[in-house]
């Protein structure tokens, strides 16, 4: 190799950025995942305006998003900076989807097809924007190796503006856990008690996690997936929940969070669905394990994009751990709020453990010792041994605009997994949109499943209203009224 070639190689090596361990995991065949996000509007799409916003955004400037994936002759993976050809990333479809009943259904049909077909081309940066002009929506595809849902949401929000103030970026809902508030007098005793709980629950849940990775599997029901199910055709439907309804349910039990309510709704909704679809009676307390991704950044929820790029602790990319969240089947004729109480107890215990940090470090250790292939196989194994995936992201409080298009709805999902059901929820302007991606040969009627989940929240709300009316106000509430 001559001196010029050596210098050129050195310059390339200085530019190339090695993939993170999580990035390497997500390009393996068993865990190759693409994130899909849909934005709908009631206005005709102005293609040139959308292209102009994308061309001026971080989408074409951020090092990770403007780099191609390179795998050298030794099998090492790198990001290499390249020029963005916008015409290759913006895909315009004018033809209507004939099977669709409305524009939202068309978007779901389109994303369901993308979930099991049409992988992203690797000779360009791993993202695309599909514009469905006949159905007034845009579908964004981004490979999970580029970043997690928090990274992608933070990036996208930087391109949006408030609908009522086009010069201002949207506000995001703050994530506050009321259980973290403690008075100074309680501090020492609370710290000691919490330390004991952390040690105990971490041991219990880490053992459960390892067991699920290696051999323990959920009992078989009509919604269980398994190895190879990720290749089956998909259906995608939307369950919609009003945030105000969730807040009413939240008030019925002290120190309850929206996440507690969400998981109570999932437990209740799945029980309702299995009551009507299971060919044989199920025993009370049957476990259906959910796999949840937990943000490990110091600040919960949406992140400031500039800070994410500058602060390593906030970190652009994939910074999440995994939690096993068991839901239990109980006859749907039981008290709706019992599902919430069980969910709250379980999630309180999970928050008192270091399970998510363990899963993150455990994955990193396996990657370092055994490589991405074996880490991917272990991740695939835990997907096969559990029943469903659940993710929940907090979106904008108010309506936003993208390229001067008022956004009517915002939804997200991912490419298919070995699970029979994956649930991805994002809140937007007072409504939570849960995308239910199902293997249609397992869950033949996902619309019924969505209805069961929506009805579960409404029944819990009715029970919560009755409970609140009958509940005597506490001394603190009486003092507040005075």
From TrEMBL:
In the N-terminal section; belongs to the long-chain O-acyltransferase family. Residues 74-183 form the O-acyltransferase WSD1-like N-terminal domain. GO terms for molecular function: diacylglycerol O-acyltransferase activity; long-chain-alcohol O-fatty-acyltransferase activity; O-acyltransferase activity. Keywords: Acyltransferase, Endoplasmic reticulum, Transferase. GO terms for cellular component: endoplasmic reticulum membrane; plasma membrane. This is Diacylglycerol O-acyltransferase. It is a single-pass membrane protein. It is found in: Cell membrane; Endoplasmic reticulum membrane. It comes from the Eukaryota. Residues 316-461 form the O-acyltransferase WSD1 C-terminal domain. Pathway: Lipid metabolism; Glycerolipid metabolism; triacylglycerol biosynthesis. It comes from Lactuca sativa. InterPro entries: CAT-like_dom_sf, O-acyltransferase_WSD1-like, O-acyltransferase_WSD1_C, O-acyltransferase_WSD1_N. Its main location: membrane. Pfam families: WS_DGAT_C (PF06974), WS_DGAT_cat (PF03007). One of its GO terms (biological process) is triglyceride biosynthetic process. It catalyses: an acyl-CoA + a 1,2-diacyl-sn-glycerol = a triacyl-sn-glycerol + CoA; a long chain fatty alcohol + a fatty acyl-CoA = a long-chain alcohol wax ester + CoA.
């Amino acid at each position: 190799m001559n001196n010029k070639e050596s210098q050129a190689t050195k310059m390339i090596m200085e530019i190339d950025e090695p993939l993170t361990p999580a990035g390497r995991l997500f390009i393996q065949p068993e865990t190759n995942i693409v994130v899909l996000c849909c934005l709908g509007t009631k206005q005709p799409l102005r293609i040139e305006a959308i292209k102009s916003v994308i061309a001026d955004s971080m989408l074409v400037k951020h090092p990770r998003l403007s780099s191609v994936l390179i795998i050298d002759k030794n099998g090492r993976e790198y990001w290499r900076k390249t020029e963005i050809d916008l015409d290759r990333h913006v895909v315009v479809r004018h033809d209507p989807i004939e099977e669709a009943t409305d524009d939202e259904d068309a978007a779901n049909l389109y994303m369901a097809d993308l979930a099991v077909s049409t992988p992203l081309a690797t000779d360009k940066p791993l993202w695309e924007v599909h514009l469905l002009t006949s159905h007034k929506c845009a579908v964004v595809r981004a490979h999970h190796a580029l970043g997690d849902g928090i990274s992608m949401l933070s990036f996208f929000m930087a391109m949006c503006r408030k609908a009522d103030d086009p010069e201002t970026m949207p506000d995001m809902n703050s994530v506050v856990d009321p259980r973290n508030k403690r008075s100074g007098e309680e501090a020492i005793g609370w710290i000691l008690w919490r330390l004991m709980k952390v040690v105990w629950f971490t041991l219990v849940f880490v053992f459960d996690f390892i067991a699920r990775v290696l051999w323990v599997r959920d009992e078989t029901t009509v919604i269980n997936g398994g190895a190879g199910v990720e290749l089956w055709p998909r259906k995608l439907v939307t369950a919609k929940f009003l945030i105000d309804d969730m807040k009413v349910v939240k008030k019925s039990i002290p120190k309850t969070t929206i996440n507690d309510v969400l998981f109570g709704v999932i437990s209740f909704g799945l029980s309702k669905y299995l009551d009507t679809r299971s060919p044989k009676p199920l025993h009370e307390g049957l476990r259906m394990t959910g796999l949840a991704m937990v943000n490990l950044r110091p600040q919960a929820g949406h992140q400031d994009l500039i800070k994410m790029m500058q602060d390593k602790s906030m970190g652009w990319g994939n910074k999440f751990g995994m939690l096993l969240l068991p839901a239990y089947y109980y006859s749907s004729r039981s008290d709706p709020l019992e599902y919430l109480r069980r969910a709250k107890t379980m999630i309180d215990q999970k928050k008192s453990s270091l399970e998510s940090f363990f899963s993150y470090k455990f994955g990193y250790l396996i990657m370092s010792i055994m490589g991405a292939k074996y880490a991917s196989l272990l991740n695939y194994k835990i997907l096969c041994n559990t029943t469903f995936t659940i993710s929940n992201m907090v979106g904008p409080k108010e309506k936003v605009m993208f390229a001067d298009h008022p956004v009517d709805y915002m939804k997200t999902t991912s490419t298919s997994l070995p699970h029979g059901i994956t649930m991805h929820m994002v809140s937007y302007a007072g409504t939570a949109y849960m995308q239910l991606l199902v293997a249609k040969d397992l869950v033949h009627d996902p619309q019924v499943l969505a209805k069961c989940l929506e009805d579960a929240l409404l029944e819990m709300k009715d029970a919560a209203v009755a409970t609140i009316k009958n509940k005597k106000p506490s001394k603190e509430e009486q003092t507040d009224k005075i």
